[in-house]
Write a structure and sequence with these properties.
Blueprint: H1 9-21, H2 34-41, H3 45-57, E1 61-64, E2 68-71, H4 77-80, E3 84-88, E4 96-106, E5 109-118, E6 121-131, H5 150-158, E7 162-173, H6 176-182, E8 189-199, E9 204-212, E10 217-221
Antiparallel strand pairs: 1-2, 3-10, 4-5, 5-6, 6-9, 7-8, 8-9
Helix pairs in contact: 1-3, 2-3
Length: 224
């Protein structure tokens, strides 16, 4: 296969990314050897390595000793977004857990309510909206602790790989429902976090809004 124009690393990367996106190369699969892949794409091995480096930087592939480049498998949402984490205000480590409180199929969307707890205390209310066509037959336990994280389930059960996400945040007064769920006094301010999660093909596969009780916990960001 020859690329339609000058074989720059970005064009090679786009071809490789598409193969991951359409499932030609599923999670856990080893990519073809670099010499044969470079020949197929009509690029030098140096150009191919740069394309592979971009995919590795995007956490779409990983290097595995003895196997070369392998399509990444999600083991946790924390591993994908390692620079975000919840902290207690005093800096002490907290025991985290989560449970789904409801799943509703609303036309073309699936709406999920999730509660995150730290040390057994309700700290975050989440509202997650998914495109129904990407998650047919979605089956998750309600009112029980989740055994796998959401993004891991997306990939394993539905073949949807979250490649990256964008977040924005700001303070607001908790509405009545959020105050009830998080056991907050009326008028309590909360941190609102809006996230868009994208798959490998840059399609939005999840919209998530989180409301965080910041009286005893913080949303930490470590910049690398």
């Amino acid at each position: 296969m020859k690329l339609s124009r000058q074989p720059l690393y970005a064009r090679a990367e786009a071809v490789l990314r598409e193969r991951i996106a359409d499932g030609t190369w599923p999670p856990g699969m080893a990519l073809p050897a670099e010499p044969s892949l470079a020949e197929e794409l009509g690029v030098s091995q140096g150009t191919l390595r740069r394309a592979l480096a971009e995919l590795e930087r995007s956490r779409l592939i990983v290097k595995v000793h003895g196997k070369g480049s392998v399509v990444a498998v999600h083991t946790s949402e924390r591993a994908l977004f390692h620079f975000f984490r919840l902290r207690r205000a005093d800096g002490a480590k907290a025991q985290a857990s989560s449970l789904l409180t409801s799943i509703e199929h609303e036309g073309e969307e699936i709406v999920i309510e999730r509660l995150r707890l730290l040390d057994g205390q309700a700290v975050i209310r989440e509202r997650i909206v998914l495109p129904a066509e990407r998650f047919p037959g979605l089956n998750l336990p309600v009112n029980r602790e989740l055994e796998t994280e959401m993004y891991v389930h997306y990939q394993r059960a539905h073949g949807v790989t979250v490649a990256h996400a964008e977040e924005s945040m700001g303070a607001e007064i908790a509405d009545a429902e959020t105050a009830r769920i998080l056991h907050l006094p009326a008028g309590t301010p909360v941190l609102r976090i809006d996230r868009l999660a994208f798959d490998v093909a840059e399609h939005v596969v999840e919209r998530r809004t989180s409301w965080l009780d910041t009286r005893a916990h913080r949303y930490g960001i470590s910049l690398a």
